[in-house]
Amino acid sequence: MNKFALTVENLTKIYSNSKNKKQNKALNELNFNVKQGEVFGLLGPNGAGKTTFLSILGGAVTKTSGKVNVWGFDLDKNPRQVRASIGIVPQEVNLDAFFSPKKLLELQAGLYGVTRKNRITDLILKMVSLQDKANAYSRSLSGGMKRRLLIAKAMVHQPPILVLDEPTAGVDVELRNNLWENVKELNNEGVTIILTTHYLIEAQEMCDRIAIIDKGNLVALDTTERLLERIKTKKINFKVKNIDLERKLFIEDAKFKIINKNIVSVTYEKDSLDFSEIVNYLNKNNIEIKDISTEDGDLEDVFVQLTKH
Asked: What CATH number does domain 1-85+197-228 carry, 3.40.50.300, 3.30.390.30, 1.10.530.10, 3.40.1550.10?
């Protein structure tokens, strides 16, 4: 078995406008792979091409050119096996209000051609913590439960890859945390997770690697840790003893801001200035440092830097 769960080579999708004969390149020769067993983030601003890519995986959109290989199956040669290897959790909650979770999963399994003896409905309900609501109407479920039920629906045919499209949109913080606990457990069971989200802090905490696309182009692909290392600007807050609010502080390649008589904020370029130089400067100017705290950049800073959004 290939060590990659998903391989994308030169994937291109062009939409043609018959009226003005203009062409819109939604995806422009994308190249990346997703390793088996990892949590892979696919990020980008609105209109970047994420939905087009997921639609190609799900069979709703036909690619213009390029290759897609899913769990060892070529999308062109083995489309049914590709569909069987993926479970897609949509962004929209689309559940029949009068069906119970158990009936919904049984129906979904039937649509996938899973025989009754091979169905694991009860196990899936337990995996997403819905065993106590197995026979309740879907309309009675909370928002977080409905999201978990969508994940369960995507798993009835036991796909090795689970695609989560904005799974926590509109979900409150507590339910979001519960949902991620379920996703982590699935990943620990060996399920490969592909995630799109607008909550960048989630991607930072959840993903092993992240691809960022913008206007159909791949602008970054690396581990989360290495992407964070790309941030060049660092911010440090110094707690000091009674500094004059009118005092002028200056070092080349650094920007000082006196917040109040006890806090001095410094922003500087990591590549051009060393932290010790700032400390030495403050000491030489008789500014007594009581405490130091740093504000490291997060994935949002990387995202803005790469996409200008």
From this structure: 3.40.50.300
